Amino acid sequence: MSERTLVLIKPDAVRRGLVGEIIGRFERKGLAIEALALRTMDVALADQHYAEHVERDFYPPLRDFMTGGSLVSMIVSGDEAITVVRLLIGATDGRKATPGSIRGDLSLSNRENLVHASDSPESAKREISLWFPELAL
After folding, report:
1. Is residue 116 among the annotated active site residues?
2. What fold is seen in the domain 2-135?
3. Of 75, 116, 124, 128, which is the active-site residue?
4. pLDDT tens figures, 46-80
C-alpha cells in the first residue's frame, strides 16, 4: 500500500544547488514525486506548519530561516514513504546524522539541515493539506 508524505527542501539546500541531488536520492530509492512546487513560505504558512513550536524560543530564528528564501515543497509517495523518507534524510542535526543519509552527507547544522519530512501519517495529512490543499485526501 502506497503512503504519502510531505517533503520540504529547505532554503539552504536550494541556495547550495542540492535540489537535484536530494530528489535523486528519493527517486533512486523507488519513491515517486506526486507533486512539486518551487515557492517561498510566508509567515502565516510558517506559523501554521510549525504550530506546535510557535511559542518556543528556537522558533523565531527557524521562521526567519524558512521564510528567507525559495524552497521546494513535494508530495512523495511509496511503500512506507514516511519511514523511508525519514531514514533517507537522517537525524535532525546534520553533524550527528549517519553518513549515507542526506543530512549525514550534506549538512553541518541543526537548523539549516536541508530537508523537512512529515513524522507521522497524521502530520503528513495535515502538512499536505497546508502545502497542496488541492491534492489533500
Report:
1. yes
2. Alpha-Beta Plaits (3.30.70)
3. 116
4. 999 999 999 999 999 999 999 999 999 999 999 99
